[in-house]
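Notes from the 1:1 (GR / supervisor)

We went over the backlog. Supervisor wanted to see one worked example end to end before approving the batch request, so GR pasted a single chain during the call. The sequence is below; no edits were made to it. Supervisor asked that the structure be written out right there so they could see what the output format looks like.
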Amino acid sequence: MDRAPGLSVRSKLTLSYAGFLMLAGVLLLGAVWVFLLRYVPERATLIVPSGTATPGVFPIRSNLLRVFAPRAAAVLAFLLVLGLAGGWILAGRMLAPLTQIADAARTAGNRSLSHRIRMKGRQDEFRELSDAFDSMLARLESHVAEQQRFAANASHELRTPLAISRTLLDVARKDPTRDRDELIERLHAVNTRAIDLTEALLLLGRGDRGNFTRESVDLSLIAEEAAETLLPLAEQRRITLDVTGGAARTSGSAELLLRMVTNLVQNAIVHNCPAGGGTVTVHTEAHGDTSVLRVENTGRPLPPEVVPTLTEPFRRGTERVRTDEHAAAGLGLAIVHSIVRAHEGTLDLVPRPAGGLLVTVTLPATP
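Structure output shown during the call:
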């Protein structure tokens, strides 16, 4: 909707400064009239000082006004000019930081998020606004870069099973004698992987948006359900799976929290001792106003520099042990991180000195 152009803020401030200055001048002249001129008599009076023979004349109000009025008008005109000129200069200096911020906003609007204001000078309201704007630009640039990497990686990961399916179909079309059951089995496996990846991407986006219904959830019950589901996988890999601790209630989505715990436990089972004999311990407890979930597993030592990258989408720890049948897209811990963040909690990953990983999830507790 188009709007008619109006006065700029600088013009408004200039007029305000000039107006206040003129008002102060008028009030000063009014004070002169109230407290001085009105006490001057209207008639001339001869004054003969005692001891002298020469009389004097006391000034009358009309003469004083005749002399005073033009000079007062000149002073008011000078104040008006001074107020306009000085107000324009002062308003320009006061609004200069806003000009810098507006330029930065226009630059950001042109998809250039790397620009920063970096306003110098003492800390004041404009400096605080500038720093807040720089922080917002930094977070926005990081978020956009993360989304671009995510979109590129997601496209690559989804293209892989589709390319495999096309290759299998091309081979089957060129070789009609190929075993059809084997082809169907391989296509089923590839399509299952593509569906799982798509569901993981949708779940990751749902966790980032945080649009879910909250209810009271006990993490200990969630942990037991996840352990019961993954117990066959643990037995197959000869991994001991234990669930300990007590009730730990929080508010959130039971479905998302179950996926969070399931991902953590499955991750701990898959990335464990390759020869079997490892352990996975799931512990829940309540600490005052927080509920804590810990998942600890054995395995090979993890380099400290690898641990912070494990929660990034499509990032896989190169030192982690995995097999082809459980090869994933690297979204397990990324989904966990997204769900924890959507539930206003914290996620902490610490490599164990003896090997393996200790994952601690801290969520706000509910009564």
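Supervisor's comment: Helices lie at 9-35, 61-109, 125-174, 180-209, 219-236, 254-270, 332-342.
Batch request approved.
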